[in-house]
Amino acid sequence: MATIPTERSPDSSVAFLRDGYRFVGRRCDRHGTDIFQARLLLEPTICLRGRPAAELFYDTGRFVRAGAMPKRGQRTLTGRGGVQGLDGAEHADRKAMFMSIMTPTAVRHLAQLFDDEWRARVPTWESGAPVVLYDEVGRMLTRAVCAWAGVPLADSEVDRRTAELHAMIEGPAALGPRHWRGLWGRRQGERWVGRLVDRVRAGTLPAPDGSALRVIAEHRDAHGRLLPRRIAAVEVLNVLRPTVAVDRFVVFAALALHDHPAWRQRVRESDEAAENFVQEVRRYYPFFPVAAARVRRSFDWQGYHFPRGRRVLLDLYGTNHHPALWPEPERFRPERFTGWRGDPFALVPQGGGEHLTGHRCAGEWITIELMKRAVTNLTTTMRYDVPPQDLALSLRRMPALPPSGFVVANVRRTA
């Protein structure tokens, strides 16, 4: 039996925060293997990257999600009791609930709402000061997803709710104020949505048929029980928050168009080029750094022993940049996706495996469609200048974002 290479440090948590998205990859390179072990948050943790590792990691016969995510992540990002931390029949039931919302028609409707929001904002941008794209897109996505999900949102609430959702996204890997804001955002968000769930159940808020708020508020488990109020609020937020998080991908798409201007014309001329461009943005730029699971029962894999209960991290960023999967992984090359038939264990920015019953993100199709609408608006609906600003992307910051948020100026309508 081979021995898993092990980091010598008594605890690597500080190194993880210091190295960010490159924590796993750097150590895999140093050990000359795609597996190593380190202590993180004082707990032995096996770290993996690559396609075989992803295929292993999403084997629900070998891994569970319960108790895998650190509590700081549950208290900010995902919420306690949400679908991400469930297994077996309970997970299948909850995942089916989410997938019932993600029909092709519903995805197109959300994308159209976002497109309408964008086009409505362009005249304001034309006559105003330079625009921070991250801030604007975050607010547009908040408006669009709330309207789509059946969540009432007054104009006066948009900034506040966007800030709460952003705080949840920023909180898990942060220390100090950013983490505290994540805790605040989670508390406020669950209170807000919990009140809406109560109103739907009482019949005083007529949420539309098929909307996320109504489906989740009225969902009954295998025993015929409604979800507890707080859990229902967590799951509604698990629709709103990830959708608003797409604002980062939109900023990355704008950054890619700025750094690779030849692609502006290509995506205008070809739907295939636009699809390839969006997929390469998702592969190339950093989104989620890792996913966590625990070993269900002891097993051996490729000569390595995985003991029961051991926490395991899959390096999502490292898998998307693995040279065995992606030639010249540090080059931005959308053409690599020409003719690509898909591989659920190779391109994993939002997790891997199967959508309908596995732990792959239920909103991945939404992400792709929203990004395509954004790219169309950035290249067809408007023209703009990119003034001097700090666009450096630090892989130490999780989640990553250019410090400027991508500022555009002199916006002009073209369509």
Description:
The chain has 415 residues and is an alpha+beta fold. The protein contains 16 helices and 10 strands. It has helices spanning 13-19, 23-31, 51-57, 71-78, 88-101, 104-126, 133-149, 158-170, 177-202, 212-218, 229-244, 246-259, 262-269, 271-284, 316-320, 364-381, and strands at 35-40, 43-48, 63-64, 131-132, 290-295, 299-301, 304-306, 311-315, 382-385, 407-413. The protein has a 5-stranded mixed beta sheet with strand order 1-2-8-5-3, with helices on both faces. Strand 6 and strand 7 form a beta hairpin. Helix 6 (104-126) crosses helix 7 (133-149), helix 7 (133-149) crosses helix 11 (229-244) and helix 8 (158-170) crosses helix 9 (177-202). The radius of gyration is 21 Å and the shape is globular.
